[in-house]
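User: Hi! Is it possible to get a structure for several chains at once, not just one? Here's what I have:
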Amino acid sequence: MTGNLLEVVDLKKHYPLTGGLLGKSEGVVQAVNGVSFSIGRGETLAIVGESGCGKSTVARSVLGLIEPTGGEVFLEGTKISGLSVRQMRAYRRHLQVVFQDPYSSLNPRMTAAEIVAEPMRNYRMGSAAKRRELVAGLFAKVGLRPDQMDRFPHEFSGGQRQRLGIARALSLSPKIIVLDEPVSALDVSVQAQIVNLLIDLRNEIGLSYLFIAHDLAVVEHISDRVAVMYLGRMVELADKRSLFARPLHPYTKALLSAVPIPEPGAHRERIKMTGDIPSPIRPPSGCRFHPRCPLAQDRCKAEQPELRTLATGHQVACHFAETALGAV
Amino acid sequence: MGGVLLAIIVVLIVLAPWIAPFDPMEIDPIMRLRPPSTENLFGTDALGRDILSRVLWGGRVSLFVGFTVAVAATGIGLSIGLLAGYLRRGDEVIMRVMDGLMAVPGILLAIVLMTLTRGSITAVVIAITVPEVPRVVRLARSLVLSVRNQTYVEAAVAMGTSEPRILVRHILPNVAAPLIVQATFVMASAIMIEAYLGFLGIGTPPEIPSWGNMMAEARSTISIGLWAMLFPGIMLALTVLAINLCGDRLRDILDPRLARRI
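Assistant: Yes, the chains can be modeled jointly so their relative placement is included. Here is the combined structure:
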């Protein structure tokens, strides 16, 4: 546990479903069910999965924006889950966030400079004049012009707004930034610019990222390690190279086969998944992926595979991972 | 357009003590029911009082009631709306009480209050404010609920912004515009209701000149002195129209996407 910047242990988040006049319980949505991972200094971990798999819930739990049902979050060895709002405030400056939607994540009634300066103001960093100077520096760092400081968010394009969001996250010099699908609301051409900016910033400042995404192509560029989530559980976690070269979980294989190859005429065997994501209210028995899995056997219906570490350091939750490893 | 009209009306009414040609209370039996002339621009009423002077003085009652009700209803409504919508304290209870208040007929409340207090402008203000509050609360609560779920509020929490500052910097500025517009409509409707109540004889005490009272008094002589009812009626209509036009204009101005940069 030492050495890791961020450590998440057995994180769970269940939402009770109530209905009817008396508000009686009608079950629980198991948004996140026992997720563990760690992020080292300067490292980028990506969490990928379909919408509804719980990846954003993980991000919000790490940030202390929602109270997890179970599990613990450690920042530099200090437990930060279950703290009061006031206690949590002291740790927030080390743990910043960039949200997915660059339109709704900036207050439309504050100027760009006010938005970027607000975190510094919250932590009483410098005088107003000093903060303005720092904001100008941050603007330059994220590729915005200082003469845009007094504009309002609606006067910026989507990509520029996301740069503002990044400048705001950087303003407290955090140790780690949670990026909750930071580019999925942007045009493809702008996506690349923002990803490159994030990579440059990481190399320059030595940041760590928790990068939430549903797009493997984006993840391939920025991450050191990749975790794949399905229905609130982690199904595979490995360093980027081995995950992309040798995916062991059938779900990861299916996801990878859906990534287009940027080469005309190139073909790859397409694994098509049948059916939809099952409801997280009544998840399937055993392995949650078995109704859609091409390899599913009787054992998968009965027994839930735990995430285990193989000899290669690859972590996977599938009964047939060894077979998959041997076959390649 | 609405702003210019409203400004003219307000200036005339505020300056009433200096520009009104006659004492609005001065009775002159010889001058009863004179039609508009160069001496009495709007004519005189059944007691020989100058209608122009009474219209100007009566406007003070209308504007005072309208403004006070708008400020009181918006202030009280916003406070309760924040309590229910942001702090979520007693949300259900508050909203059911508001539903109950909405079911009380305003006229009934006015009659009861007038009977209990023997009539006063304060009682009129209370009688009009109480039924307006639940409407403001509903609007404020729904605005606050939608703003507090915006990502920028979540971002502010993640950036370590304190609760009072989130309220002042992030919630209030983003709910203010519709509430200010709503306040102008509350003001217009309060001026109308004050006139209704006066007309029905359960509003402002009859010795105070107000537009509703003037129209009520002119009712019995309408066949021989239409002007006694016409001029306060026109002023009432113009004032309410001007306020509503201002409200519409404000809505455009207060939208940051439409506002011109200064």
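Chain A has a mean pLDDT of 89. Residues 188-205 of chain A form the longest helix (18 residues).

User: Great, thank you!
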